[in-house]
Amino acid sequence: MCRNNNFYKKNFIFKIIHNDLKNKKYNFICTRFPPEPNGYLHIGHIKSICLNFSIAKFYGGNCFLRIDDTNPTTENIKYINSIKKDLIWLGFKWDHKIKYSSDYFDMIYKYAIELINKNLAYVDELSIQEIKSYRGTLSVPGKDSPYRNRSIKENLKLFHNMRLGNFSEGSMSLRAKIDMKSKIIIMRDPVLYRIKFQKHHQTGKKWCIYPTYDFCHCISDSIEGITHSLCTLEFQDNKILYNWILNNISVKNYPKQYEFSKLQIEYGITSKRNIRLLIKNKIVDGWDDPRLLTISGLRRKGYTALSLKNFCYRIGVTKQNNIIQLSYLEFCIKKELNQIAPRAMAILRPLKIIIDNFPVNKKIKLLIPNHPFNKNMGYRIIYFTKEIYIDILDFSEEEKKDYKRLILGKKVKLRYSFVIKANKVIKNSNGNIICVYCTYYQNTLGIKIDKKDQKIKGIIHWISCLNSQPVLFYLYKTLLKKKCINNTDNILSYINKKSLLIYNGFIEKNLLKEQKKKHFQFEREGYFYFDKKNSNKKQIIFNQILSFRS
Ligand code: ATP
Ligand code: MG
Predict the structure, then answer these.
(1) Ligand 1 centre distance from Cα of residue 35 (Å)
(2) Cα–Cα dist 85/288, whole Å
(3) Residue 204 neighbours by CB distance under 10 Å
(4) Is 47 touching ligand 1 by the criterion CB < 6 Å?
(5) Confidence grade of residue 514 (pLDDT, cut at 50, 70, 90)
(6) Per-residue pLDDT tens over the stretch 467-485
(7) Protein residue with its CA nearest to atom 25 in ligand 1
(8) What fold does the segment set 343-547 form as a domain?
(9) Is the Cβ atom of 262 under 6 angstroms away from ligand 1?
């Protein structure tokens, strides 16, 4: 279990379950994580996964993975595979074999017939649009469908024919007969079954009618013996329908539903529908784009499973809707990487420095630590040579306020190396700096600089040109320009067009080989992660996890 589980345990759902077990309401608890396989999982799902799995584990109960697959039109086997992969990567193990709502289609069909037999369901011939307009609004009561009062016999016959495929898609549906005037709109004769001539990834061509999410969801929970059915706040009203359904069919188990608030993150998108929209509009290049808050995107960007779980444990579970600061998520990965990521030097925007007073063929070997506070992470060798790279942002021709880097005519210390002074700037015909000639001071290796000593401006990072490997650095900014988006907002109008910046730079040679790690803290730049997906023999790509520069 994660370190932060202790304060996580104080959440209201943990307390309810604790009391239910203490009061012997249950001897054994069962929870589930029920994703719809219509997209990849995102950080919001991790909140639900952590909650369901950690509660079941803590109390020695079961937690199932149920693929909620009632809509074959939008579902796909590749999403199921990604869900499995993400859960395993997070380190959670579901109990028993994977469950599918479609495993229960036969039973659900029988329950529908039970409702018809009790005169609690009817076959309607209104179109989808008509059903919508008959439904009314919060202030206008709904209207009964003209097909609402068919005989049980006729309903049974029509439903049977729906199943046989004798009617076209959209021409008929099975609806619960509840109350078209109910204050709760969801109770105005909700649709239970619709016709879809669509092959299903699990059941093939066996069915041409499919239960709706609401009808299927509560029955699946009951069949599996879920004791605590945990979901997000928007399902509060659905609970009333779930109870109606379960009370009117012959089931043994009545799961109790508890709702908690959805995870929302500043500038972030936690809706599969919106992520799909970004992919379709080629704003991101797939579900695992590192700018997305999908599990696969975060993983590719360099987030670890532990940091994401710790984040979810730290934010806790409440009924309060709130938006979490992005910096909080970054704090969690920073905390972990600060311990485990080796330090190294990388130059994102190279500027060549030529050391006037250093021989061409000479190189000085320097042994430097991989981690400033953890000697167990070892040391590595770098070289000081006549030509080195520094970052162009670390050089200025003029003195600037609080600028503690290399300035023309002034001195700076190179990290783990010598003090140098900038003497001359060479520019091309466009006025761009090509290189800077400097002097190095032989007796300055290893000296500590005195902050009050105005002569040496500061310490900057560098790489020997001889000891460098070209790489691409991908730097990410938020995808959205707006901090919080509402459900009604069109996210396409808030896209930050500069969310990806690519730099051609250098890292120390053989870094990946020698460190055998993929996470690095590139000194003074930030944390980076090797991009396995798009790197190859010809080009190495590093994704920036977070930046030290503001
Ligand atoms: P989306 O709006 O992204 O499609 P969803 O709720 O439709 O999300 P499901 O696949 O149905 O996605 O979700 C599986 C489980 O994850 C549900 O129990 C749902 O409540 C939970 N979940 C989804 N999004 C969040 C979120 N942002 N925060 C917490 N839990 C979430
Ligand atoms: Mg959904």
Answers:
(1) 7
(2) 13
(3) 9
(4) yes
(5) confident
(6) 999 999 999 999 999 888 8
(7) 44
(8) Ribosomal Protein L25; Chain P (2.40.240)
(9) yes
CA of 534 to the centre of ligand 1 (A): 29
Residue range(s) in the chain whose domain bears CATH number 3.40.50.620: 1-97+261-340
**120-124-128 Cα angle (round to 5):** 125
Judge contact between 108 and 219, C-beta under 8 A.
Answer: yes
Ligand nearest to the CA of 234: 1
> What's the Cα-to-Cα distance from 329 to each of 121, 157, 322, 358, rounded to whole Å?
47, 56, 15, 46
Q: Which of 242, 219, 243 is nearest to 111 (CA)?
A: 219
CB burial string 10-22: b at 16+ within 10 A, e below? ebebbeebeebbe
By alpha-carbon position, which residue is closest to atom 7 of ligand 1? 36
The ligand 1 atom at the shortest distance from the C-alpha of residue 232 is 20
Domain with CATH 2.40.240.10 in the chain: 343-547
Residue 352 Cα distances to 59, 168, 331, 433, 528, angstroms: 61, 71, 34, 9, 23
Asked if residue 452 has pLDDT above 70, the reply is no
Q: Please give the distance, rounded to the nearest whole angstrom, from the Cα atom of residue 36 to the centre of ligand 2.
A: 6
What atom in ligand 1 is closest to the CA of residue 41? Answer: 10
Ligand closest to the CA atom of residue 294:
1
Residues 6+ apart with CB under 8 A from 416: 366, 368, 382
Is residue 44 in contact with ligand 1, taking CB distance under 6 Å? yes
Contact 52, 82 (CB under 8 A): no
Instruction: Compute the distance between CA of residue 266 and CA of residue 496 in angstroms, rounded to an integer.
Output: 14
Q: What is the DSSP string of 256-318?
A: EEEEEPPPEETT----HHHHHHHHHTTSSSSTT-TTS-BHHHHHHHT--HHHHHHHHHHH---
Name the closest ligand to CA 42: 1
Report the predicted TM-score, pTM, of the whole model to 2 decimal places. Answer: 0.94
Give per-residue pLDDT as tens, 189-210.
Answer: 999 999 999 999 999 999 999 9
Give the mutation target among 45, 101, 287 for probing the ligand 1 site: most ligand atoms within 8 A of CB: 45
Architecture of domain 1-97+261-340: 3-Layer(aba) Sandwich (3.40)
Which mutation among 216, 232, 295, 484 tests ligand 1's pocket best, with the greatest number of atoms within 8 A of CB? 232
Length of the chain: 550
Q: Ligand 1 pocket, 469 CB below 6 A?
A: no
Closest CA to 170 of 207, 134, 120, 130: 130
Read off the tokens for 171.
Answer: 């021409």
Ligand in nearest proximity to the CA of 287: 1
